[in-house]
Recover the amino acids of this structure.
């Protein structure tokens, strides 16, 4: 029986016996963080769902109003902590849009590499955790082996493995180190074979397919109505990808496909992520091949941090360093919205600036927040055993959802 | 372009306009039927000291024509904004968040509860008069909050007009030893 998001809750006449209220979370292995679901059950079937979020609320938007633009970068690491590099890039691009900066080509290509490495690493974790939730423990170990290689690359690039804080307004903390591009090429050379192996383990795995096919079907129009983005929307057949529709960082100059699903079930969301990783590898190869030389940050000494070696030897740069660090880049009055295609979906920043070094209001449009809002609609009609499969296929992060 | 919308000057290539509060439902429904099927986000902004105090910002997207549109509406303290959750269901959670964080009510919303803070929490933390360090609240058997040390952070910047006032403040020594 196909169960869709439109399925009506079980009617009172079908109702046999007593309803049971079951709490899942806030701390439960399948909620991947601190999500709480209050399920009303009729036997094994869910009749009503209440999604409780906010257990990881830290007030990031309030904090942002009280610090300079660059000071907020470390907080973006902790939004979608599976892909901190992609968050850094999205935030920096949003502030640069407000500032009116045009990045030099080398910075753009560097950031594309950051985004795609983050995408692969986030999808690998999502995939491993999803497979483990439906009973395939081995996948988790396999995907973590690959993630480890990406973390080594990220450490090489930024000096940190998880909390990267790599970008600054107008550029990055530093240029890419020598040997990094070779490392990325090496990773790209061996990774597709690993992906084939992951596919071979799951694509026709009876247990995996039985637990994901035709489970949690979301029709495309309903997915968009609930503001779903990223692989969860594309799994339903809508091909919206920010990189194609509103290209940033010159994504239009890369050759890649946007995979879409047909049914919109858990299996399609899994399949879309698998294919997205292949496309990311292709983007990485193109980026490595075309990495231009030249400047790696915007030339605007009063608003962009100067190179470290010059700060220690030149008077002018030392003064600029002080201005940028204490007062922050001087933003104009205005408001912008910038959305980036992050691993979980469209991560958007709405910035309302009254001028100066601090935002008047910074709103984070978190993809996981919107993605989770459909659960109350989607879960009724499914059985309790479908819940881990659906949650796993959604691949959400509470750090981003609760902010 | 659209009836009832006053267009604002373009900034950084983005189109935006303002709409009167009471015309929101019909304008939003019309826009959705014109192709703006994707409601990206709804945001509330607090302009404390101005009148009207709040602003609610809608970000819309037309994915076929690849167009982005921002609509804003001014909301006075105590006013209710007509809910658009009947037009886009994603608005449901966004409006709950704005109610929770800024205390702007949405009329016609099916279930206007707090979403990030707990039910019964007395403040709206994103209002400008709410201090960064937080306010102590105590609700026996539910939850409690205490003020954060160092006003909420070791380096806190305020949005002052004078650049020298924007520099991060150093905290008094006795406060640092908390």
């Amino acid at each position: 029986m196909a169960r869709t998001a439109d399925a009506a809750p079980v009617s009172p006449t079908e109702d046999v016996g007593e309803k049971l209220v079951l709490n899942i979370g806030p701390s439960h292995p399948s909620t991947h963080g601190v999500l709480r679901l209050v399920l009303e059950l009729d036997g094994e079937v869910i009749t009503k769902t209440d999604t409780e979020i906010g257990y990881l609320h830290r007030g990031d938007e309030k904090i942002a109003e009280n610090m300079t633009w660059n000071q907020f970068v470390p907080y973006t690491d902790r939004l979608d902590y599976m892909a901190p590099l992609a968050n850094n890039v999205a935030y920096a691009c949003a502030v640069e849009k407000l500032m009116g900066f045009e990045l030099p080509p080398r910075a753009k290509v560097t950031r594309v590499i950051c985004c795609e490495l983050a995408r692969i690493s986030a999808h690998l974790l999502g995939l491993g955790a999803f497979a483990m939730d439906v009973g395939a423990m081995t996948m988790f170990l396999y995907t973590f082996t690959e993630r480890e290689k990406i973390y080594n690359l990220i450490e090489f690039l930024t000096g940190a493995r998880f909390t990267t804080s790599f970008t600054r307004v107008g550029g990055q903390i530093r240029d890419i180190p020598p040997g990094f591009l070779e490392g990325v090429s090496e990773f790209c050379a061996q990774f597709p074979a690993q992906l084939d192996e992951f596919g071979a383990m799951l694509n026709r795995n009876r247990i995996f397919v039985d637990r994901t096919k035709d489970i949690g079907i979301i029709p495309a129009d309903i997915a968009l109505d609930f503001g779903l983005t990223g692989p969860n929307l594309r799994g339903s057949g809508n091909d919206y990808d920010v990189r194609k529709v509103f290209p940033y960082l010159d994504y239009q100059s890369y050759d890649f496909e946007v995979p879409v699903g047909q049914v919109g079930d858990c299996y399609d969301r899994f399949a879309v992520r698998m294919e997205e990783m292949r496309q990311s590898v292709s983007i990485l190869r193109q980026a490595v091949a075309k990495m231009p030389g030249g400047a790696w940050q915007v030339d605007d000494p009063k608003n962009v941090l100067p190179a470290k070696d010059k700060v220690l030897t030149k008077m002018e740069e030392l003064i600029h360093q002080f201005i940028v660090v204490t007062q922050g880049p001087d933003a104009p009055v205005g408001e912008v919205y910038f959305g980036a295609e992050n691993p979980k979906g469209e991560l958007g920043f709405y910035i309302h600036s009254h001028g100066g070094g601090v935002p008047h209001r910074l709103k984070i449009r978190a993809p996981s927040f919107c993605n989770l809002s459909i659960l109350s609609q989607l879960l009724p009609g499914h059985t309790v055993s479908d819940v881990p499969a659906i949650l796993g296929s959604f691949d959400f992060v509470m750090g981003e959802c609760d902010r | 372009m659209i009836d009832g919308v006053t267009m604002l000057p373009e900034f950084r290539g983005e189109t935006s306009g303002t709409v009167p509060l009471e015309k929101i439902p019909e304008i939003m429904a019309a826009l959705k039927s014109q192709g703006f099927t994707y409601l990206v986000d709804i945001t509330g902004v607090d302009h404390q000291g101005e009148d009207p105090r709040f602003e609610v910002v809608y970000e819309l997207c037309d994915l076929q024509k690849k167009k982005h549109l921002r609509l804003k509406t001014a909301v006075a303290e105590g006013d209710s904004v007509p809910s658009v959750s009947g037009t886009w269901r994603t608005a449901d959670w966004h409006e709950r968040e704005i109610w929770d964080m800024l205390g702007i009510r949405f009329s016609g919303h099916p279930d206007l509860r707090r979403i990030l803070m707990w039910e019964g929490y007395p403040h709206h933390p994103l209002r400008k008069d709410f201090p960064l360090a937080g306010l102590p609240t105590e609700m026996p058997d539910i939850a409690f909050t205490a003020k954060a040390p160092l006003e909420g952070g070791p380096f806190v910047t305020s949005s002052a007009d004078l650049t020298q006032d924007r520099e991060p403040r150093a905290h008094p020594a006795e406060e640092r030893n908390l």
User: Anything to note?
Assistant: The radius of gyration of chain B is 19 Å. Residues 52 and 76 of chain B are 4 Å apart (CA to CA). Chain B has a mean pLDDT of 82. Chain B touches chain A through 47 residues (CB under 8 Å).
